[in-house]
Design brief:
The complex is a heterodimer of chains A (about 230) and B (about 170). Chain A is of the alpha+beta class and about 230 residues long. In chain A, about 50% of the residues lie in helices and about 15% in strands. Chain A has a domain of about 120 residues: Alpha-Beta Plaits (2-Layer Sandwich). Chain A contains 5 helices and 5 strands, in the order H-H-H-E-E-H-E-E-E-H. A 4-stranded antiparallel sheet of chain A has the order 1-2-5-3, covered by helices on one side. With about 170 residues, chain B is α+β, with helices and mostly antiparallel strands. Chain B folds into 2 domains: about 70 residues; about 90 residues, Gyrase A, domain 2. A 4-stranded antiparallel sheet of chain B has the order 1-2-4-3. The relative contact order of chain B is 0.10. The chains are: A alpha+beta (about 230), B alpha+beta (about 170). The interface between A and B is large, with 73 and 57 residues.
Chain lengths: ~230, ~170
């Protein structure tokens, strides 16, 4: 059956054909342009969000760095030398022996024997059993200061004493090393580190820097050495 | 009218979207410039930053390693000071502590009454507040040549952590 269009309607379409075309074109255009804009705007919004986070993180880092550098510029090298001496990048036996000698001298507790416990050691810890003798006072001096007085970080996992005992005392001392990489996966808090350093500095009885400490951070071998062990 | 309205609305939407895009582009450029500027400034402090990274990492390692320490002196002094409050005659004859703060100690007395008084004090909250657990393991009485008896009390337990103090 043939479709009949009323003459008035046909006239209307004929008169407004241009407008109808414009309308259809604009509807089609809006179906293309709006989604395009939408995807661009969403993408740009995500970028801006990411940039804002990065900028804010960089600004924070800059402020912290600036403030730490302004407050501690002269001390950073010394502090780094101090902690590197306490925990060197790699283990070296000479600094350990030197540390034991220094500890012995500063406390009056005579360390006359030491044995490396390889079974209790690992890549970052070296365990040494030291045997020594001295008065109770000397032994207590050792117990008070062994953590830092030798210029190396020393820990003792277990200590047992009989206060009446003199001489022939054994202790298992741990020495540590840790290589530092510049990867910053960990969230490092410089201000907290500086604060902690101040506390650590107060604990270290004998300044590594004033004594014969390495000037360079990696210079953990800058201690008096002997050409012969004997 | 409808068509005019649609065109106006379409143009307004296009205008709005274009404006938003321009604003976004400006923001991106502004942020990029700020980031570039900060990165330039940071690169001038690269040497100091390297030192600070090393310093912070060494301190992180220090925090880990120091956990291995038994921290003998602070706990020994704590026990001695606390005991002094109760009795002058109690002698600390043995004291063992490890890094997990597990402790064992022995007290010797030359007098039964002093021992009883000290024992009462050890059971009191003033003493036990320093320990997360404390048990008496042994009790011995031994006569000596002068007809007096020495009493010995052995304890085992665990100290509560005390704040970091100077060793």
């Amino acid at each position: 059956m043939r479709l009949k269009i009323r003459p008035y309607l046909r006239f209307l379409i004929k008169q407004n054909l241009a407008y109808v075309f414009v309308f259809v074109a604009m509807v089609a255009l809006s179906f293309v342009i709006v989604p395009l804009f939408y995807s661009q705007i969403t993408e740009a919004y995500a970028d801006i969000k990411k940039y804002r986070v990065e900028t804010s993180s960089l600004q924070r880092k800059q402020q912290v760095l600036q403030s730490v550098i302004n407050e501690n510029n002269d001390d950073i090298d010394q502090d780094l030398a101090l902690v590197t001496a306490l925990i060197p990048d790699t283990e070296d036996y000479f600094s350990m022996i030197y540390s034991l000698e220094k500890l012995s001298q500063s406390t009056g507790f005579i360390i006359n024997n030491y044995v490396v416990n390889l079974s209790k050691s690992d890549s970052s810890k070296l365990s040494i059993t030291v045997t020594g003798e001295g008065s109770s006072e000397a032994f207590f001096n050792l117990l008070r200061t062994y953590n830092f007085a030798g210029g190396r970080l020393i820990t003792v996992e277990q200590i047992g004493i009989d206060p009446a005992t003199n001489g022939g005392i054994s202790l298992n001392l741990n020495f540590y090393n840790k290589i530092t990489t510049l990867e910053t996966k960990d969230n490092l808090n410089y201000q907290e580190s500086i604060k902690e350093l101040n506390e650590l500095r107060a604990k270290v009885k004998f300044s590594i820097v004033k004594d014969s400490a390495p000037k360079e951070p990696s210079g953990s071998t800058d201690y008096p050495t002997k050409t012969s062990l004997f | 009218m409808f068509l005019v309205g649609y065109v106006v609305a379409f143009l307004l939407i296009m205008l709005g979207l274009s404006g938003l895009r321009i604003y976004q582009a400006t923001q991106k450029t502004k942020l990029t410039n700020i980031r570039r500027s900060i990165k330039t400034q940071l690169s001038s402090h690269q040497g100091d930053e390297v030192k600070l990274i090393k310093l912070s990492k060494k301190l992180n390692a220090y925090r880990e390693f120091i956990k291995d320490d038994a921290r003998f002196i602070p706990y020994y002094e704590l026990l001695r000071t606390t005991l002094k409050h109760s009795s002058e005659s109690a002698t600390l004859t043995e004291f063992n502590i490890d890094k997990s703060r597990k402790v064992s100690f022995k007290l010797r007395f030359g007098n039964f009454n002093e021992m009883v008084n000290t024992f009462k004090f050890i059971e009191s909250p003033d003493f036990t507040k320093n320990f997360s657990s404390l048990d008496m393991k042994d009790f011995t009485g031994q006569g000596d040549s002068s007809d007096s008896t020495n009493y010995e009390l052995s304890f085992e337990g665990s100290f509560k952590p005390i704040n970091e103090t100077k060793n």
